[in-house]
Write a structure and sequence with these properties.
It contains 14 helices and twelve strands. By secondary structure, the chain is of the alpha/beta class. The chain folds into two domains: about 230 residues, Aspartate Aminotransferase, domain 2 (3-Layer(aba) Sandwich); about 80 residues, Aspartate Aminotransferase, domain 1 (Alpha-Beta Complex). It binds pyridoxal-5'-phosphate.
Length: about 325
Amino acid sequence: MIDFRSDTVTKPSKKMRDIMHNAPVGDDVYGDDESVNQLEAYACERFNFEAALYCSSGTQANLLALMAHCERGDEYICGQNAHNYKFEGGGAAVLGSVQPQPIENEADGSIPFSKIAAAIKPDDCHFAKTRLLSLENTIGGKVLPLEYLAQARNFVNTHNLALHLDGARAFNAAAELKVDITDITKYFDSVSICLSKGLGAPVGSLLLGSQTLIDKARRWRKVLGGGMRQAGMLAAAGQYALEHNINRLSDDHANARYLAQKLSALSGFTVDMSNTTNMVYATFESSINIEGIAEALKGQGILFSPSKQLRLVTHLDITRENIDTFINALSAHI
Ligand SMILES: *Cc1c(COP(=O)(O)O)cnc(C)c1O
């Protein structure tokens, strides 16, 4: 299958599976899993944070961050399009009694600081207590520039807030900016990182923060059913992903640009050429029966989500030849 639906669809390689097979394990709830411990220690070094926590998913890592930063009755400010507001089932409110305060994202994915400042609640019993600003990078495939992140740090310092990064695809941002990951993560009090997207691990995310924050998150992880026992087989895949699958992310970005060019040359498709990482967004003329095409291409082993605004994602299981195959199949149907 050639699968453009998401970078979550990547499958573990033979080498990754071998590493998983041989990973030393123990009971992680007792702190005994060597592979989990090794991954968490490695992540502290790699991201330059005091502590790290291996989590079952990005959703869990974000929720734990929100629940560790905020108490019941607190609020976090985030973008209207933020994954940890829009796409995580309202977990912070449902499970954390934490109120989201979403603000419309600009087209480039940023949130204007004037709007954030206006949304911060005064200390008054009518209001929830504003505790945290949560940003996302990349967001919808777009990279927030380092300058914006630096401004965000200054902003939260001024307003006495904490700063969280949903860095599910922070390595894609780093690859595009041609900087080290720490040039992005250094501005934040906590960061979540997905190992199971472009990095190619089958499962897992990391949460990074201070020791105090991660101790709190670790408690909540157990409460939420995320104490995973012999999780080392999965953690080993995560470590392999961090060690082997980062440098190649720029290939995915080059492939996305190639796909964007090819798609924009097809009649009836309008492609957002401003997207620079591993996602291609496109709209199409109403005469194009996208559901029908998706169904037909599925029969040819090509998968994509037929929504009104198409999102095609490149990743380590998509080659340039796959893109040519897709474009040829697509053009045969329009
Ligand atoms: C995928 C994603 C998550 C959640 O990760 P899961 O592992 O799917 O729960 C969080 N934030 C962003 C920006 C994502 O793209």
